[in-house]
Amino acid sequence: MDLNLIRDKIDVLDKEIVNLLEERFELVKSVADYKRENNMAVLDANRESRIIEKNIGYLENKDLSNLITKIFKDIFQGSRDFQEDLLSETKIKIPMKIGYQGVKGSYSEEAALGFFEENNSFISFEKFEDVFRAIENQDIEYGVIPLENSSTGGINENIDLLNKYGLYIVGEEYLSIRHNLMGLKGSNIEDIETVYSHPQAISQCQDFLENYNDWTKVSYLNTAKSAEFVKNNGHIKCAAIASKRAANIYGLEILKSNISDVDNNTTRFVIVGSKIENDSSQNKISIVLSTLHKSGSLFKVIENFSRYDINMLKIQSRPIKSKRWEYFFFIDFEGNLADDNVQRAISNIKENCIYFKVIGNYEKGNNADE
Q1: Which of 125, 132, 229, 269 is catalytic?
Q2: Domain 180-256 in the same topology as domain 96-176+266-275
Q3: What is the CATH number of domain 180-256?
Q4: Which terminal residue of the chain, N or C, has fewer Cβ atoms less than 10 Å from its own Cβ?
Q5: Closest alpha carbon to 121 in 96, 92, 93, 94
Q6: Straight-line distance from the first to the last Cα atom of the chain, in angstroms, rounded to the nearest whole number
Q7: What is the pTM of this model?
Q8: From 115, 116, 229, 267, active-site residue
Q9: What is the CATH code of the structural domain delimited by 3-90?
Q10: pLDDT tens per residue across span 121-156
Q11: Is 267 a catalytic residue?
């Protein structure tokens, strides 16, 4: 057959393909409208997989299966991008209720203000578990929870609560922590006898506090709450460890700045919600699992990250309270749930677990790699 004739036929088919794609994207507009009205995520990885499988079934020449799969994945990516653009243009920014533990001036509030826009409503709770309950009861949309610190490691209470309540990580915020010793106006370090702060803050300032072994260290619910207590207590012999912002809010005087053991002290906060959220920009996944209590079980899980060239960022164990000497494993790794290698890895991991759950697919925080 003449080459020009072949190309003419291809041109005719290309025109039909363009017309069909244009018609498809008109329908995608309606899909975006529906997802906006029903608060649905753009990505539906399971549906995309079903569509590919169904359309491969229409092929007479099965040798084209991989090529058709690639073409449809490109179409799906374009569709997701198109939907996200439509949603960002039409989205009405309704103020949300955001929960955090502590009071104004806490590091959790600062992380919340860093992640969310200021037009939202920020609500404080006395305990971390109160934040989880509020999300579960739909009193707030999201909670901001500290999950680990670069100096002292994981905050076990909150890791356990994340699993207990079955909620999802939808984002993260890394906050540089600058602890300061503060007291009443006119006080000085020589006056201090008792220091109040959250146990994590006290632990992160051990080098400084060892210079004052005669001080009584009192654990408190929250760093900012301890600053508020010192202000209300009105006793010149009391001090708090908290942020500079807390000192300003409660009218305290900073007696010593930056008393953390390390200069790059950073806390990772996670944004917790009731639903998992998926879109193409997300590049970090968190899972929790437990394995059979026998030799090699955990290795069969971990080897999948190397096999599928996935960068595992963290693994942490927590005891299963109902079973002696058995553990949950919390694992963070890079990827998106729509990635082929991620899907294959997760499928293999599940085969070696007695419990498995994805607890988040979200975008890495700005300082995640520092």
Answers
A1: 269
A2: yes
A3: 3.40.190.10
A4: N
A5: 96
A6: 61
A7: 0.71
A8: 267
A9: 1.20.59.10
A10: 999 999 999 999 999 998 999 999 999 988 888 899
A11: yes
